[in-house]
Design goal:
InterPro entries: FAD-dep_OxRdtase_2_FAD-bd (IPR003953), FAD-oxidoreductase_2 (IPR050315), FAD/NAD-bd_sf (IPR036188), Flavocytochrome_c (IPR010960), Succ_DH/fumarate_Rdtase_cat_sf (IPR027477), TAT_signal (IPR006311). Belongs to the FAD-dependent oxidoreductase 2 family. FRD/SDH subfamily. It comes from Adlercreutzia muris. It is built from 18 helices and 20 strands. Strands 1, 2, 6, 7, 8, 9, 18 and 19 form an eight-stranded mixed beta sheet that branches. Helix content is 35%, strand content 22%. The protein is α+β, with helices and mostly antiparallel strands. Helix 4 packs parallel to helix 9 and helix 4 packs parallel to helix 18. The protein has two domains: 249 residues, FAD/NAD(P)-binding domain; 140 residues, Flavocytochrome C3, Chain A, domain 1 (Alpha-Beta Complex). The longest helix is centred in the C-terminal third of the chain and has 21 residues.
Length: 490
């Protein structure tokens, strides 16, 4: 069979981490272009499935649940790390969605078309309009689907680039990822869907043009998992500095918010199977990353009223602008960083802040003057900055930086600040797909048997991703690919 000849010809590198394998092969060639001694001496074991899902982030878990619930039960999920969840564990702001039941219950007016228009505008009109519209049109359905799984996202706030409250968070305002992953894993376990942990995907198996399975290193043992469909939900590349700088040399040395397993494996496997990669140079930096711990300070903190000030205690930009613009403005400040400053009401409204505090990255003062002393800025300047910001809401004054969203006046009492600067956050480019999540070649033709969802795909966010849209992406397209594959294989 051509698939077996292809595998034996290429082989794969067993027992190596994804990053090490890429470096050993010159950075970005197919993992396993040279047969290892173990692979050549011992034929791989074989297992048969209808579908294999690679990755236990939000996209992969949602795909598995949706496929199972549509009757496709002979499936397996692969996770190369020893912990599940991928970058979804680090998702903090929430999930953008429009025309949702929760919005309507809270009197928030919104529309799918407005959501799509602002998403395209936020990506500077470089996203795929069809994919964007599909995501927005199906966002409310995904919120309802999650609610049906016991994952309630009814606490709604704003993120930069959005004109209304559509960022859905857990009821208590906590980081969305730490609610989403356990909830999805519980649904996976309830259905008895097998998950292979510490199982690293190495190479897609092909028979002619069709993908017919995947070669893996399952805890040190070489295996071929034969499948009628493979769904790549492998996440991004932010933890692979070599791959980051291949596409963006200017990002050398930046810290990353990504989990260690985000090493770009899916891009390599898909491209070598004939898929087209698009917009790979579009790697987003996030403006509010604490540099010593690489902790992402959620955009909901700014959306809830926080401001950014420089070393002189002055604001310098609209905090609710898009991430690329805020990051660029920060880098122009003395030292290339800013202080994210907020009061007790913002602290209390964002449960993630207590975790930042526990990590030791939050500075505190009982007053503006005490906070200014703690962070080394001029107290009078900081007081004037806060007074001018308060006037936007209390007196209806126009903001000199054009901020119109998330303007909530500071109240007297405890004040807080976190030192932030840009860090590598999200890969907007990736595998070219259509609204059926089929992986496409350079001519726009689907590669039989190969699907992709989540951060490993490209074309949805353009050259700038709106905060809250990543979770919408992984949930809408994760659910969708599971249903599509189940229907295709029925």
């Amino acid at each position: 069979m051509e698939a077996s000849r292809l595998l034996s010809r290429r082989g794969f590198v067993a027992g190596m981490g994804a990053t090490a394998a890429l470096v050993a092969l010159g950075g970005f060639g197919l993992t396993g272009c040279t047969p290892s001694k173990a692979a050549s001496e011992s034929p791989a074991e074989s297992e048969d499935y209808d579908a294999v899902i690679v990755g236990t982030g939000g996209a992969g878990l949602s795909a598995a649940i949706a496929a199972y619930d549509r009757g496709l039960t002979n499936i397996v999920i692969l996770e190369k790390m020893a912990v599940n969840g991928g970058n979804t564990n680090y998702s903090s702001s929430g999930m953008n969605a429009s025309e949702t039941t929760f919005q309507k219950d809270q009197g928030i007016e919104d529309s799918n078309d407005a959501f799509a228009a602002e998403t395209l505008e936020g990506g500077h009109d470089t996203g795929d309009p069809e994919l964007v519209q599909f995501m927005c049109d199906n966002s409310a359905g995904a919120i309802d689907w999650l609610d049906g799984l016991g994952i309630k996202l009814d606490n709604i706030t704003m993120t930069g680039g959005m004109s209304t409250k559509r960022c859905h968070r857990p009821t208590d305002g906590s980081a969305v990822g730490l609610t989403l992953v356990p909830g999805l894993m519980a649904a996976v376990e309830e259905r008895g869907i097998p998950v292979k942990m510490s199982c690293e995907a190495k190479e897609l198996l092909k028979d002619g043009d069709a993908v017919v399975g995947i070669a893996v290193d399952d805890k040190g043992k070489a295996k071929n998992l034969n499948a009628r469909a493979v769904i790549l939900a492998t996440g991004g590349l932010g933890a692979n500095q070599d791959m980051v700088t291949k596409y963006r040399p200017d990002l050398a040395g930046y810290v990353t918010t990504n989990q260690p397993g985000a090493t770009g494996d899916g891009y390599v496997m898909a491209e070598n199977a004939g898929a087209e990669l698009i917009q790979m140079d579009q790697i987003q930096i996030h403006p509010t990353v604490e540099q010593e711990t690489s902790t992402l300070v959620a955009e909901g903190v700014r959306g809830g009223g926080a401001i950014l000030v420089n070393t002189e205690g002055n604001r310098f930009f609209d905090e609710m602008s898009t991430r690329d613009k805020v990051s660029a403005a920060e880098l122009e400040q003395p030292g290339g960083f800013a202080w994210c400053v907020f009061d007790q009401q913002v602290y209390d409204a964002n449960k993630a802040i207590s975790k930042y505090d526990d990590a030791g990255i939050v500075q505190q003062g009982a007053s503006v003057a005490e906070l200014a002393s703690a962070i080394g800025v001029d107290a009078a300047a900081l007081a004037d900055t806060i007074a001018a910001y308060n006037a936007i809401t209390t007196d209806g004054a126009a903001d000199e930086f054009g901020r119109t969203e998330g303007c909530i006046a500071f109240v007297d009492g405890n004040m807080y600040a976190i030192k932030v600067a840009p860090g590598i956050h999200h890969a907007m480019g990736g595998i070219r797909i259509n609204t059926k999540n089929e992986a496409l070649d350079a001519s726009g033709n689907p590669i039989p048997g190969l699907y992709a969802a989540g951060e490993v795909t490209g074309g949805i966010h353009g050259n700038n991703r709106i905060g809250g849209n990543a979770v919408c992406d992984i949930e809408v397209f994760g659910k969708n690919v599971g249903e599509v594959v189940a229907e295709a294989l029925a």
